[in-house]
Specification:
By secondary structure, the protein is α/β, with parallel strands linked by helices. The chain folds into two domains: 128 residues, 3-Layer(aba) Sandwich (Rossmann fold); 60 residues, Arc Repressor Mutant, subunit A, CATH 1.10.10. It contains eight helices and five strands. The chain has a five-stranded parallel β-sheet, sandwiched between helices. α2 packs parallel to α3, α6 crosses α7 and α7 packs across α8. The longest helix has 22 residues. The radius of gyration is 17 Å and the shape is globular.
Length: 204
């Protein structure tokens, strides 16, 4: 993966947390830009097209105690057809925030406090999906939406792109479920879930 594809934008109004997250990401060879509010974040994205992933806190000023600004940021990214994956990281009401964020196009939802390992796994998964979308774009697929959170109310919508990605990764690993799970950044049981969901069999 080239260096430009490893450029992240961290949108967080808590300066201490932002500094900590930036340190974790930079130690893992990511380039990190920072923003503390919606307008600054959108300016960054418009002027820095190499940004591939956004880590977005939903509780941003001037309304840090609700999800309004974060959701508006998501909507603006979607409306502007910005080619980024958005990982929501928030301490707001998790169920309500997750449903709203996924509905508005978020790639993943992480509840604070999320471990460094969880954040890095989500970022790497987002970059994998970016890579697969570029490959599949030649086939007319423009967006992959694979929501790995399978709790009630958060099941991903069955789309052709979802199924094709899961099938492709399984094929590339020779139907090695453990390796497929690692590549997708999910647990092994999630791979079995998707195989059952899409009716995928080893002899497909």
């Amino acid at each position: 993966m080239n260096s430009a594809s490893r450029h992240l934008l961290l949108v967080e109004d808590d300066s201490a947390l932002r500094t900590m997250l930036r340190g974790i990401l930079e130690l893992n060879d990511f380039t990190v830009s920072e923003a503390e509010d919606r307008l600054t974040a959108l300016d960054w994205l418009r002027s820095t097209p190499e940004v591939a992933v956004v880590i977005l806190d939903l509780g941003l000023p001037p309304h840090p105690h609700d999800i309004t600004e974060g959701i508006e940021t998501l909507r603006a990214i979607e409306a502007g057809f910005m080619s980024v994956k958005v990982i929501v990281l928030t301490g707001q009401d998790q169920e309500a925030a997750a449903l709203e964020a996924i509905r508005e196009g978020a790639f993943d939802f992480l509840a604070k406090p999320a471990s460094a390992a969880t954040i890095l796994q989500s970022v790497r998964r987002a970059l994998l999906f970016m890579e697969k979308e570029r490959e599949m774009g030649r086939q007319g697929v423009t967006r992959i939406a694979l929501n790995i959170q399978i709790g009630e109310g958060l099941k991903g919508v069955r789309t052709d792109a979802e199924e094709r990605l899961v099938r492709q990764v399984l094929k590339e690993t020779g139907f090695n479920v453990l390796q497929s799970a690692k590549r997708l950044g999910v647990k092994r049981e999630n791979v079995y879930y998707f195989m059952k969901k899409f009716g995928i069999q080893r002899d497909d």
